[in-house]
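TICKET #2291
ISSUE: user wants both folds in one file
ATTACHMENT 1:
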Amino acid sequence: RISSAAVGQEGPTYSPDGKQLWLGQANGYTKFTVNADGTLADPVAVDIPAVGTQQALVGAAVFSADGSTVYSAVNGQNKVVAIDAAAGTIKQSWAVGNAPRGLALVGGKLYVSNEGGRPAKAGETTMNSYGTQVPANPETGASTSGTVSVIDTLGGKAVQTITVGLHPTTVYAKKGTVFVTNTADNSVSVIDTRKDKIGRASCRERV
């Protein structure tokens, strides 16, 4: 059981060795030990502090290959954090686009889907999304941009931004390619991780 009734935006994440399970909450995670029979024990709170009135509202989480670090999309604060998996402390933080949600780790590069896209420009129509002014359609209020941030977790380099479809959510990596689901325009953006560019035409779903 967990002490808080709050839940995160994505499902739980297992460590590479299967011995930990991290469950997203409004203000961080609950970390469980996974017993040999698959049951959970020893819940420990891993806090991501609120910034003013903005809770973390965590999105996806992904472990480093060695299991020492958990990368978390902090949807409510427009950032990604690196958490020491053993100590439960934040080691590093990167500012990304608006409302980060999905994550995929390819080598040392982290791909982050930003549901609200890029920061607003002066004079644009915007909507207030949990304290952030997001570029938006003046009639529907829907966001009008979608982006993926690329973070070099090994070199600590600045974040690169790739334009994708609208309201990108889930990110999936396979054999040097990252697939991004764009929920607002029924498409999938395909990113070539060698160049960090859209590698070939995106696909549209027929409904």
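ATTACHMENT 2:
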Amino acid sequence: SNDMVHLETINPDNWRLDLKVRDDQSKFVSNPNRILARAYAFRNNRSQAFVIYDDETPIGMAMYNDLDDSYDFSQFFIDERFQGKGYGFKAAELVLQKMKDDGAFDRVILCYVDGDEAAKNLYLKLGFHHTGETDGNEIVMKKILRKG
């Protein structure tokens, strides 16, 4: 259930998990190995990568890192077997709370691939809004974490 959802930082015991996205979503979401590579590549930007759990069961992954004046919520997915149960909203809230607790920036940006309606709707529900910017086929959204 959603009240058992929690994040664990990627570590030697949990990074090899058998998590995957639905085939029809693979054009929208990075696979776990790409997320791990990205977390390593952005380590000087204080990248934080997490496995999302429901109690003891790994159900997804998330990552963010620092950008110039904001957090970049760059990677996020729920495994195909656990989608449609409200985990995405709960897990994203927990990631946003990590950013708030860190406190370096008061805003967070993210991109979703044009056509990924599920992602768009989730982020709107979480309080993100479209900036009007795009990056190729990716659409930029922003959320203010706290008023300055």
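RESOLUTION: both attachments delivered.
EXTRA DETAIL ON ATTACHMENT 2: The chain has a mean pLDDT of 90.
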